[in-house]
Design goal:
Layout: H1 2-5, E1 10-12, H2 15-25, H3 32-42, H4 44-63, E2 70-78, E3 81-89, H5 92-96, H6 98-164, H7 169-204, E4 240-242
Parallel strand pairs: 1-4
Antiparallel strand pairs: 2-3
Helix pairs in contact: 2-3, 3-6, 4-6, 6-7
Length: 247
């Protein structure tokens, strides 16, 4: 199950079914688990894979059913008499090939299910990674802004002290260089934070959605001890729920 591997279900839905839920999830500052939840609900690539899985499941179910027989009914008139003509037809070839067709559709369904499972697990991992990258770069941008403000104040103070004759031209130039370097680093941090946030937005499926989210001010604290990997969860089945979808 996805709960064993990523602690989240991967539902197939209709757009109107989940917009309210996503809006509620985005109301508070976004957390890592919430980001994964939104991605599994709203990522267009995953939803396409789940829709393909639903079609494969429907084909598999249909392949295991006997074809409907055909019934013919009519009237034949001649010589002043009327005869009732009845006929029943059945697709014998479809009946004979039923086991092989069912086996083929079963294999196709299992393959599609594994592909959807892999895509869901990969999406969850990528979203969690992109979330931490977005928070880290936003925190780095805030720090770069404070450094630039401090460097600006130092450069202004250096210029005043140079005017008063208390500093040499070299010291004042050094402060100006540090200020310009801080400006450059802030611009680079802003670019990285923007790129990281855009990557997260794409994974969440929020591009052109009109929905906004806020990130926490800082990364969470590190745990007291390192977590040990659970090898029992390395082999996990995959559960997909279909919400409001016809299969």
């Amino acid at each position: 199950m996805t709960q064993q591997r990523i602690a989240q279900p991967a539902p197939l839905h209709r757009d109107q079914d989940i917009r309210g839920e996503i809006t509620a999830l985005l109301a508070a500052p976004l957390g890592a688990d919430t980001a994964v939840r939104v991605a599994l609900l709203n990522n267009h690539g995953l939803q396409a894979a789940l829709a393909e899985l639903a079609v494969a499941e429907a084909d598999f179910v249909q392949a295991g059913h006997l074809p409907n027989p055909g019934f013919r009914f009519g009237q034949v008139r001649g010589g002043g008499e009327t005869d009732i003509d009845r006929g029943l037809s059945f697709n014998l070839a479809a009946l004979l090939t039923l086991p092989s067709r069912a086996g083929i559709e079963r294999s196709r369904f299992e393959q599609t299910k594994l592909q959807a499972a892999l895509q869901a697990v990969t999406l969850a991992a990528d979203t969690r990674k992109a979330y931490y990258a977005a928070v880290a770069t936003a925190q780095a941008l805030a720090f770069a802004g404070k450094v630039r403000e401090a460097a600006e104040a130092a450069a202004e103070l250096g210029a005043r002290m140079r005017t008063a004759g208390n500093w040499s031209a070299l010291d004042a130039a050094r402060e100006r260089a540090f200020y310009h370097d801080a400006e450059t680093r802030q611009a680079q941090a802003h670019l990285q934070a923007t790129a990281a946030r855009e990557a997260l937005i794409r994974l969440l499926g929020l591009a052109d959605s009109g929905l906004e989210f806020t990130l926490p001010d800082r990364l969470p604290d590190l745990p007291d001890r390192a977590r040990t990997a659970n090898t029992d969860s390395c082999v996990a089945s995959f559960e997909i729920t279909f919400t409001g979808a016809d299969t």
